[in-house]
UniProtKB/TrEMBL annotation, chain A:
Coiled coil: none annotated. It comes from Terrapene triunguis (Three-toed box turtle). PANTHER family: GLUTAMYL-TRNA(GLN) AMIDOTRANSFERASE SUBUNIT A, MITOCHONDRIAL, TRANSAMIDASE. GO terms for biological process: glutaminyl-tRNAGln biosynthesis via transamidation; mitochondrial translation; regulation of protein stability. Its EC number is 6.3.5.7. This is Glutamyl-tRNA(Gln) amidotransferase subunit A, mitochondrial. GO terms for molecular function: ATP binding; glutaminyl-tRNA synthase (glutamine-hydrolyzing) activity. InterPro entries: Amidase, Amidase_dom, AS_sf, GatA.
UniProtKB/TrEMBL annotation, chain B:
It comes from the Eukaryota. Belongs to the GatB/GatE family. GatB subfamily. NCBIfam families: gatB, PRK05477.1-2, PRK05477.1-4. This is Glutamyl-tRNA(Gln) amidotransferase subunit B, mitochondrial.
Length: 524, 506
């Protein structure tokens, strides 16, 4: 029952085949059974059950609030949740219970969704592995899938089970793992440089980064204000559209949201591919792109072409400056945003209190990890008067050029761009930590982060399994505020590729029959 | 609710009054003194008394004035603005910088800044930007202040002000100082340093209140000029209602940049005098600093580029121990606020929601008469002296009082003004009363002046009635004596007393 889509479970709830309480309890026990994944930082059992009961009452009276009523969801632990601890996986906010909820969280709750808990992440969402938070790394559910196990046993007989587990990608790895391991039906992530799409791709789920300004950031603890967007992680594109319909729209509390009203949409299964123009950015043939991913990307392009779509190679010439530019802009905003964590109003406060300055310094040293402190230092360096022009202003100009690259491509008739989401499938944790956070982030954000620079919507769709039996996702980037078109294309693609469902065995409840294993029709 | 999440901050000491002030005065510190030629030859020459006849010194004074915007709510949050409310009772989540909160610009504050800009002959920027200015301080919860460093809302204005010059101070001259810019910015909270218990208490009620920073070019040359300019600005703000501009409540805070040099030579090193919290001390603080710099230089010393505070008890400026020199504010665009776009009637897009836009022309059409215009009107309409028109406007409610008396009496306004300025205002000043607290109502004064005008009573009798009205009972007996004399003792003095008392208490 937990393995179905949000849409399907919503129908089951409406038809009375399952009750919200029962559903919530099942999810909660599944969360406990998969605790070793470390997907959740906080499990909000009591409030979730209360919300489920209230939902049940609404179903009984026939007065449900919306499509999400009674549906268990999870939220990344960098969204404020009133009354529920919100930590950003940092000592700085450990124990912090916010007095208000983020607008997106409130919108979910207003629709009757049941909030199961807060998901794990890299500290303050700074990372691409979900490995650098104080609560430890998130384990990729695919580590325990039959698909991966069978292959890895073939490859190596010596590795013990507990050392070759895989990273989820990040920074919204907890949310991706939660959706992928069937402990919830949708999860919120945040996406600043790819933090929703990267783990979604590695965990074989759909990850949507909406257009900047479409969804309120109020209550999302910021990483980079000018690029952050709440992200949506679901098991299929249709579900992402449903959640988007709930979350999108102007928020007076976020002045960067657009005023235009947003009309929720349903996706059609049919598209007239002959009217579609898909762009393949040549600069995305980046060094480090695995041959498998490259082959899959090109197969996907063929798929569109064979269906009658125009597939055109396009150029985004400034792509190669994107990562370095992002580094400057990101750290500068980080340095600024983190200034508020001084131990006075909330959060961690050091016991060293010889003077205010000593207290500040000790609080921040104790509260932030090396990654956060490193970014604060570089950001402050870039913002110094003598460096501002050379770094920050220049990076802003480059950002404009990157954004204009997309403008030009879309002006020339391209509807959506098709790219890889990640360089390759995911890797074991022991491999991942051989490189530092900065190097990893630079590598892993390479295909995703330009969309944040340009504010464009992008979605990763799980496409096929690698030779190792691990998911590979491909990314579609759309025109600003054209989510409907983007998701329609993504849904069509999803229907074509028939990505296999994860077969979780052994580790979780054996009582449930392992789901139907649809053999991929196209990418087998 | 927000207050409860704020721990009453218990910080260890750093209890320097100056330090607090340095932060309160916001981004003014680092602005360079404008280079360029001295504006005109009208600069006052200063030389300390008793010095030999060396080349005279010229002082250059520039002002940065923070005016608190009169608004019900703060610049970027819905918290109420109120003076002397219980500590931390007016603090929203945003004001306390709770993570994830975002600024939402208060339209009223924008309108107040536009209004002020127009009144100060500024060009209003149709597009202005917000920036973050970073520094760590306990009463700045976000670690940065949102201000307008790059592109402020109003630029290139001017302010004309008048002052009395000449040996007898009886000659009115009008001068003009250019306004460099007006920027919108957030106020900080307040730190209260408790030396005895070695702690600092933080009150965030003021944190996030909207300020207009008015930057005047360094074109003044004395404390007196600066004081006159500030007084005129204060009147303008109060007339507009864009700020209550009460210095005692910190609604108008003045920092002065002061330097001295010999005419024809380059500008001297400037100091910044902060902490000038009253109109009374403004001129004194600046003049003291001018004299101090001259003495310093004449004694072969140098003037340091430093921040000094005015100690009103000692009547002098003292250096503030600060690390300002090394401070780098790491300015950055505020990413959570789109550019502030203003419209005029021409550029106003069709079908706009008027609640969503600010129309400069609409505000311009509704500007009230500014003090300068009112003064001209008073002089023209009533034939009074220009300096009298200044006095009428300088005292809150005095102009209205004067006009009310004039309306109700046949006496020539030129004579009325004498009664008001000499007899009534003198008394009020002496007793530290405001016009509105005057025991003599405009109706009463008008009646009295009518009696005088008709010859019913003499001028001295009228003055005595005024005295009684002001509470001087001894004069009553004189008045009774007057009645007795006039009636040659034909009336009962007790009855006279009763009648007089009854009439006077009306």
């Amino acid at each position: 029952m937990l393995r179905v889509s949000l849409r399907e479970i919503s129908a089951a709830l409406k038809e009375g085949r399952v009750s919200p309480t029962e559903l919530c309890q099942r999810c909660l026990s599944f969360i406990k059974a998969t605790k070793f994944l470390n997907a959740y930082i906080t499990i909000a059992e009591d409030t979730a059950l209360k919300q489920a009961e209230e939902s049940e009452e609404r179903y009984r009276r026939g007065q449900i609030l919306g499509d999400l009523d009674g549906i268990p969801v999870a939220v990344k632990d960098n969204f404020n949740t009133a009354g529920i601890e919100t930590t950003c996986a940092s000592n700085m906010l450990k124990g912090y219970i916010p007095p208000y909820s983020a607008t997106v969280v409130q919108k979910l709750l207003d629709q009757g969704a049941v909030l199961l808990g807060k998901t794990n992440l890299d500290e303050f969402a700074m990372g691409s592995g979900s490995t650098d938070g104080i609560f430890g790394p998130v384990r990729n559910p695919w580590s325990y899938s039959r698909q991966y196990r069978e292959k890895s046993v073939q490859n190596s007989h010596t590795e013990n089970e507990d050392s070759n587990w895989l990273v989820t990608g990040g920074s919204s790895g907890g949310s991706a793992a939660a959706v992928s391991s069937f402990t919830c039906f949708a999860a919120l992530g945040s996406d600043t440089g790819g933090s929703t799409r990267n783990p979604a791709a590695h965990c074989g789920v759909v990850g949507l980064k909406p257009t900047y300004g479409l969804i309120s950031r109020h209550g999302l603890i910021p990483l980079v204000n000018s690029m952050d967007v709440p992200g949506i992680l679901t098991r299929c594109v249709d579900d992402a559209a449903i959640v988007l319909g709930v979350l999108a729209g102007h928020d007076p509390k976020d002045s960067t949201t657009v005023q235009d009203p947003f009309k929720p949409f349903e996706l059609t299964s049919f598209i007239d591919a002959s009217k579609l123009c898909i762009g393949i950015p040549k600069e995305y043939h980046a060094p480090g792109l695995s041959s498998e991913t490259l082959a899959l990307w090109s197969k996907a392009a063929d798929l569109f072409e064979n269906a009658g779509a125009k597939v055109i190679e396009v150029s985004l010439p400034h792509t190669r400056y994107s990562i370095i530019c992002y580094h400057v802009l990101c750290t500068a905003e980080v340095a600024s945003n983190m200034a508020r964590f001084d131990g006075l109003e909330y959060g961690h406060r050091s016991s060293m209190d010889k003077s205010t300055e000593v207290m500040y310094a000790a609080t921040r040293r104790e509260g932030f990890n090396d990654v956060v402190r490193g970014r604060i230092l570089s950001g402050n360096y870039f913002l110094l008067k003598q460096n501002y022009e050379t770094y920050f202003i220049k990076a802003q100009k480059v950002r404009r050029l990157i954004a204009n690259d997309f403008v030009n491509v879309f002006r020339n008739g391209i509807d959506v761009l098709l790219t890889p989401t990640t360089l390759s499938d995911t890797i074991p944790y022991v491999e991942f930590i051989k490189e530092d956070n900065r190097t990893r982030s630079a590598q892993d954000d390479i295909f995703t982060q330009a969309a944040n620079m340009a504010g464009l919507p992008a979605i990763t769709v799980p496409t096929a399994l690698s030779e190792k039996g691990l998911p590979i996702g491909l990314q579609f980037i759309g025109r600003a505020f054209q989510e409907q078109q983007l998701l329609t294309v993504a849904k069509w693609f999803e229907n074509q590729v028939k990505f296999p469902m994860i077969q979780l065995q052994g580790m979780m409840d054996h009582g449930h029959t392992v789901c139907r294993h649809q053999k991929s029709a196209f990418f087998s | 609710m927000a207050a409860s999440i704020l721990r009453r901050s218990l910080l260890t000491p750093r209890c320097r009054a100056g330090d607090v002030a340095a932060l309160h005065s916001g981004p003014s510190r680092r602005r360079a003194q404008a280079p360029g030629p001295i504006a005109s030859g009208r600069r006052a020459a200063n030389s300390p008394a008793g010095e030999r006849g060396v080349a005279p010194w010229v002082a250059v004074v520039g002002l940065e004035i923070h005016a608190q915007i009169s608004s019900n709510s703060k610049l970027f949050s819905g918290s109420q603005v109120q003076f002397a409310a219980p500590p931390n009772s007016l603090v929203s989540f945003f004001d306390a910088s709770l993570p994830g909160t975002l600024p939402a610009l208060n339209r009223r504050c924008v309108e107040a800044a536009v209004m002020t800009g127009l009144a100060l002959n500024c060009s209003i920027n149709k597009k202005s930007l917000f920036d973050r200015k970073h520094y760590f301080y306990a009463d700045l919860p976000a670690g940065y202040q949102i201000t307008q460093q790059r592109l402020p809302v109003a630029v290139n204005g001017s302010l004309s002000y008048s002052l009395c010059v000449g040996r007898k101070k009886n000659q009115m001259v009008t001068r003009t100082v250019r306004i460099k810019q007006i920027q919108l910015e957030q106020d900080s909270g307040k730190s209260l340093h408790d030396d005895i218990r070695s702690q600092t208490l933080i009150d965030l009620n003021r944190a996030g209140v909207g300020l207009m920073e008015v930057v005047m070019e360094p074109e003044m040359s004395s404390g007196e000029e600066a004081a006159a300019a500030v007084r005129e600005l204060q009147l303008i703000l109060q007339t507009l209602g864009s700020s209550q501009a009460i210095m005692a409540e910190g609604q108008l805070r003045v920092d002065a940049n002061v330097s001295v040099h010999h005419p024809g030579e380059a500008y001297g090193v400037r100091t910044e005098v902060k902490n000038i919290n009253s109109a009374r001390f403004l001129a004194r603080a600046i003049d003291y600093e001018i004299q101090r710099q001259i003495k310093e230089l004449e004694n072969g010393g140098t003037v340091m580029n430093e921040t000094r505070a005015f100690d009103f008890k000692l009547g002098c400026t003292i250096p503030m121990r600060d690390k300002e020199g090394k401070q780098d504010y790491r300015f950055m665009p505020e990413p959570n606020l789109p550019p502030l776009i203003l419209y005029d009637t021409k550029s106003l897009p069709a079908n706009t929601n008027h609640q969503q836009v600010v129309n400069i022309d609409w505000i311009r059409e509704r500007l009230p008469d500014l003090p300068s215009v009112r003064r001209v009107k008073l002089v023209e309409q009533y034939g009074i002296l220009p300096e009298h028109s200044f006095t009428l406007l300088n005292e809150d409610g005095l102009m209205e009082f004067f006009e009310s008396v004039v309306r109700q009496t046949q006496m020539n306004p030129k004579k009325v003004i004498g009664w008001i300025l000499n007899d009534m205002l003198g008394y009020l000043k002496q007793h530290n009363l405001k016009v509105k607290e005057s025991p003599v109502s405009s109706l009463f004064l008008a009646d009295l002046l009518n009696l005088l005008e008709r010859g019913t009573i003499s001028s001295s009798a009228a003055k005595q009635v005024m005295e009684i009205k002001k509470g001087n009972q001894k004069v009553l007996n004189k008045l009774i004596g007057l009645v007795q004399r006039t009636t040659r003792g034909r009336v009962d003095p007790v009855l006279v007393k009763q009648i007089l008392e009854k009439r006077l208490s009306q």
